[in-house]
Design brief:
The chain has one domain (about 20-170): Four Helix Bundle (Hemerythrin (Met), subunit A). The protein has helices spanning about 5-25, 40-60, 65-95, 105-135, 140-165. With about 170 residues, the chain is mainly α. Helices cover about 80% and strands about 0% of the residues. Helix 1 (about 5-25) runs antiparallel to helix 4 (about 105-135), helix 2 runs antiparallel to helix 3 (about 65-95) and helix 4 packs antiparallel against helix 5 (about 140-165). The radius of gyration is 17 Å and the shape is globular.
Length: about 170
């Protein structure tokens, strides 16, 4: 393992811990400000776009379109960062919305929500490791972890949209 890889590994560990911790801390911070736009439909759309980008990126790499794949993946990462910034901004400036459904649909909602939250934290190191393996040209190991990262990340993006759709009547 080279010095460059060790340096990246430190950042992967730091970011994999810091991102969820900072998000959790910021959820406790309330800013008395009204944003000029209602963010949930925007960040849900960004999640949907990320899902589409991931699917197209897999198609691109399977069709040997490496440059396109790289651009799509960098865009997907940028979209995820933008999503997270908007999500945190919304929760810092708005009260949490309670799901109003009852019975089975409430159970389904919470199963989707909890799995989404847990996997959104778990996917962070997978995305970072997959990205580092690509940029350091460790393609065989990149492929191996990408087979795990892709379905996890796709699940997180799709369930984010589903959660938004399910809770949107209660905003």
């Amino acid at each position: 393992m080279g010095t460059e890889t060790k340096k990246y590994n430190k950042w992967i560990v730091i970011l994999s811990i810091a991102i969820p911790v900072v998000v959790a801390i910021l959820f406790g911070v309330k800013i008395d400000a009204e944003l000029p736009i209602f963010l949930p439909p925007i960040y849900a759309t960004i999640n949907a776009l990320t899902a589409v980008l991931l699917i197209i990126a897999v198609w691109a790499i399977k069709n040997k379109k490496i440059v396109l794949h790289k651009k799509l993946m960098k865009t997907a990462i940028a979209c995820s960062v933008l999503f997270l910034a908007m999500y945190v901004a919304h929760h810092m400036t708005s009260e949490s919305t309670k799901f109003g459904g009852e019975g089975t649909i409430k159970t389904v909602y919470f199963i989707i929500l909890i799995s989404h939250i847990v996997l959104s934290i778990a996917v962070i190191p997978f995305v970072l490791i997959t990205f580092v393996r690509a940029i350091t040209n460790n393609i065989e190991l990149h492929k191996k972890i990408a087979r795990i990262t892709f379905p996890l990340w796709l699940y997180v993006t799709i369930t984010g949209v589903i959660v938004y759709i399910m809770i949107s009547p209660y905003y």
